[in-house]
Design goal:
Elements lengths: L4 E6 L7 H11 L3 E6 L1 H6 L2 H8 L17 H8 L2 E7 L1 H9 L5 H8 L4 E5 L3 H5 L1 H12 L3 E2 L3 E4 L5 E5 L3 H12 L9 E6 L4 E2 L5 E2 L6 H12 L3 E6 L11 E4 L3 H11 L5 E4 L6 E3 L18 E3 L3 H8 L5 E8 L3 H11 L4 E6 L11 E2 L1 E5 L4 E3 L3 E2 H13 L11
Helix pairs in contact: 1-3, 1-9, 4-6, 5-8, 10-14
The protein binds cytidine-5'-triphosphate (CTP).
Cytidine-5'-triphosphate (CTP) binds next to helix 12 and strand 16.
Length: 404
């Protein structure tokens, strides 16, 4: 940890006193530690304690701008290699999950791009409250690392889950996060996400149920592992991960052009988009009016983007496809792996609970051209993205699987 820059955010719970031991251990291991406290935390333990341990002033007030050359919360946010919130109350977890920033701690937290570790501590019933659990789940999906609270007697008199994890345990998690590999540093990753939308007239489109969550999770995970990421996405409302370059497209043909434009400079292409296989043969310039009797719309085939990629790809590029299936998943996925000259295919049965469109989780099996078969249990899409990137970046090579 020597020289690592760590922010410890302390919030107002009785476990705030344990944050002093945490800071002391981090300092002993060679880290540079800055403490940010909420007002409530200062009711439990004084800033002077942390100042004495870390040998740096403690930030509590957002408007206490003692150095006019910097904006303190942005400066701190940029400075950090990792941000640990310990103890984290239900309140700070809720604020983080909603993106609220109404004090020094939450503004710094919202501004940082460093990995965030959260060690909750609260009453057993507060922790079990579905609202708190929902907030934790949302943050986990965004890549926040949680150090689960322990079980035992709590300050409120209850016995159960809710005690702040021991400082040693939190220190180990900090060490692990600091050592997390930047194994895609210097790599250019191209990700496609979401549904394409094929116009039929000025008001109607042909599309599918994909929301883009899987592709966005891949883009965010690749960014966190050091890659330069371009995300080519169909229409949608999902927030674009900061630092990721977005190319917005609407139709399959637009997506094809964007992919082919970006392909030459990409090391890795991950094609999570659900591309419309067909589009209306002609687009009416004015709204089609209803009439008695059925309406027949002629559809024509869209190009298969991955087949076009297969014709142009270099041998040092890694190409990953997705297969959304409802039956005979393995056979269909293996056929697509072969036909589209992919290095890996991520197969999911979109009819299964916890998998597929709109869900925050996915249940996938990844098949590799090199014989890899990785069946993953249900997990957050972000975690699926991490496991996929482990494979893509793994074994010290990108592109060793070979081209067509
Ligand atoms: N794909 C593509 N271009 C298309 C259709 C699909 O590049 N016109 C890509 C998807 O992005 C995905 C993979 O091919 O990575 C598989 O997509 P999927 O919809 O599962 O399969 P299709 O090839 O369209 O086959 P089918 O719809 O018959 O299952």
């Amino acid at each position: 940890m020597l020289g690592s820059r760590i922010i410890v955010g302390v919030t107002g719970g009785i476990a705030a006193y344990k944050a002093a031991a945490l800071c002391s251990q981090l300092v002993k291991r060679g880290a540079e530690v800055r403490v940010v406290m909420t007002e409530a935390a200062t009711r439990f333990i004084t800033p002077l304690t942390f100042q004495s341990i870390t040998k740096h002033p403690v930030a509590v007030d957002t408007f206490d701008e003692h150095d006019p050359s910097v904006i303190q919360h942005i400066h701190l946010a940029d400075w950090a290699d990792v941000f640990v919130v310990a103890p984290a109350t239900a309140d700070v977890i809720a604020k983080a999950a909603c993106g609220l920033a109404d004090d020094m701690l939450t503004t710094t937290l919202l501004a940082t791009r460093a990995p965030v570790i959260v060690a909750p501590a609260m009453n057993v019933h507060m922790l079990a409250n579905p609202i708190v659990q929902e907030n934790i789940r949302r943050l986990r999906e965004r890549g926040f690392v949680f150090v689960d609270p322990g079980e035992g007697p709590l300050a409120c008199g209850y016995t159960g889950k809710g005690r702040l994890a021991e400082p040693d345990e939190i220190v180990e998690v900090v060490a692990a996060v600091l050592q997390r590999k930047k194994d895609l540093e210097g790599k250019r990753v191209l990700v496609t996400a979401g549904a394409t939308r094929e116009p039929f007239d000025p008001v109607r489109v042909l599309s599918n149920r994909s929301t883009g969550k899987m592709g966005y999770a891949v883009a965010e995970a690749a960014r966190d592992r050091g890659a330069e990421v371009t995300l080519i996405a169909g229409p949608g409302e999902l927030p674009v991960p900061p630092g990721v370059q977005l190319v917005r497209v609407e139709t399959a043909l637009e997506m094809l052009n964007a992919v082919l434009d970006c392909l030459p400079s990409a090391d890795i292409l991950i094609k999570a988009a659900a591309v419309s296989d067909y589009r209306p043969a002609s687009v009416s310039p004015s709204k089609v009016k209803k009439s008695d009797g059925p309406l027949v719309v002629e559809l024509v085939r869209n190009p298969d983007i991955l087949l076009e990629v297969a014709k142009r790809r270099r041998h040092d590029q890694v190409i990953v496809g997705f297969a959304a299936e409802t039956d005979d998943v393995e056979r269909h996925a293996r056929e697509k792996l072969e036909k589209k000259s992919l290095d890996y295919i991520v197969a999911n049965d979109v009819s299964k609970p916890g998998a597929g469109f709109g869900s925050d989780t996915n249940v996938v099996t990844i098949f590799g051209r090199d014989g890899t078969v990785l069946s993953l249990p249900p997990m957050a899409k972000r975690q699926v993205a991490e496991r996929l990137l482990d494979l893509v970046a793994g074994a010290g090579r990108v592109g060793a699987v070979g081209g067509p």
